[in-house]
Amino acid sequence: MSTTIDSSYNSLLAHIGEALEYGRKKAVSRINESIVETYWTIGKYIVDFEQAGNEKAEYGSETLKRLSKDLIIRYGNGFGLSNVYRMRQLYTAFPIFATVSQKLSWSHYVELLKIADPLERSFYLKECEQENWGVRELRRQMQSMLFQRLALSKNKNEVLRLSEQGQVIEKPEDIIKDPYIFEFTGLPQLPVYKEGDLEDALIDNISTFLLELGKGFAFIGRQQRINIGGRIFKVDLVFYHRILKCFVLIDLKRGEVQHEDIGQMNLYLNYYREEMNTEGDTEPIGIVLGAYEDKLMVKYATQNISNQLFVSRYQLYFPDREQLENEICRFLDNKRKTDN
User: Fold this and answer.
1) pLDDT by residue (tens digit) across 175-206?
2) Where in the sequence is the domain holding 21, given as residue range(s)?
3) Domains in the chain, number
């Protein structure tokens, strides 16, 4: 009898705990919504003050300096010059309050308002909403220039769609990045590292690795054995993509991708299609990841391969913004010429 009572009591305790957790999260969410709305309203008042013919309140202006000091005196901390300036920015970036996401905190907006380009800012806002990124994840994706890396594989209309809807996964090409950024591994500090070191570092940082891979990835395992005619092969990393409903196989190469690496991945894909796929699974995807590649060799090595096989690069440091943006400009220019 006591066992039944204890079980019922534990169930009661668990239900109360869930209710408290839900209530606390809801309270925090409402507080965040209220703060963002209040700061947006403050920003509107500042802009209205400017438009009435008063001094333009740019960062460092006498108006903002005075406002900051007076607000701190009256209402305490939280109204430093930079914060008051961000409030003004929030209104100018989102002049219609309905476009301000209620899912994001003020800390999210502080990061988003650092982005000058409206298309890029809109993309990160959508991704934060859809993927529930915290501020830390948002900062990391901004530093890794996710928007620019995804934009390199798209035409002008698709870049616009990317900014309006976030990353949409509809086909295998949509999950590919070039390059992948693995700054979180800590390997740049090592004078020499092996492919195994890279694999270990990725698994040790699996949550950040999954964030870099993008939405829809679920980790299955590493060094997955394949037995073909008595010979044992091992796939470095295996994932399942819940949106595309397929296995994703990744092979890591410390240096340049060779043609035999592509042939080996093709072998793995054939095996997974025939032996591992079950009802409902679509064609598996293979990604050979190397530090660099010979594009001409890759072109010939992948020609006439019917499997969904991709070759891409990774780098162990954040990309250079100017270099990547120049690549995007060249890419879109070439696309325009091709389309015309």
Assistant:
1) 999 899 999 998 876 667 778 889 999 999 99
2) 2-114
3) 2
Q: pLDDT tens-digit profile of 73-98?
A: 988 888 999 999 999 999 999 999 99
For 222, the enclosing helix (H) or strand (E) is strand 217-228
Residue 164 phi/psi, 5-degree rounding, is -85, -30
Same structural domain for residues 194 and 304? Answer: yes
Mean pLDDT of the chain, nearest integer: 87
Span 141-164, pLDDT tens digits: 999 999 988 887 777 778 888 888
Taking a C-beta distance cutoff of 8 angstroms, is the pair 158, 168 a contact?
Answer: no
pLDDT band, residue 7 (cuts 50/70/90): confident
Which residue type, as a one-letter code, is found at position 6? D
Which domain CATH number covers 310? Answer: 3.40.1350.10
Asked if residue 133 belongs to a domain, the reply is no
Q: Which of 28, 31, 214 is nearest to 123 (CA)?
A: 214
* N-terminal to C-terminal alpha carbon distance within the chain: 81
Structure tokens that stand for 188 in this block = 């740049």
Domain boundary among 57, 87, 114: 114
3-state DSSP of 84-150: HHHHHHHHHHCCCHHHCCCCCCHHHHHHHCCCCCHHHHHHHHHHHHHHCCCHHHHHHHHHCCHHHHH
- Whether 293 has a pLDDT exceeding 90, the answer reads no
Q: How far apart are CA 163 and CA 200, in angstroms?
A: 34
pTM above 0.85, yes or no: no
**Burial of residue 188 (number of CB atoms within 10 Å: 0-12, 13-18, 19+):** exposed
Q: Are 331 and 159 in contact (CB under 8 A)?
A: no
**Please, what's the largest Cα pairwise distance for the chain?**
83
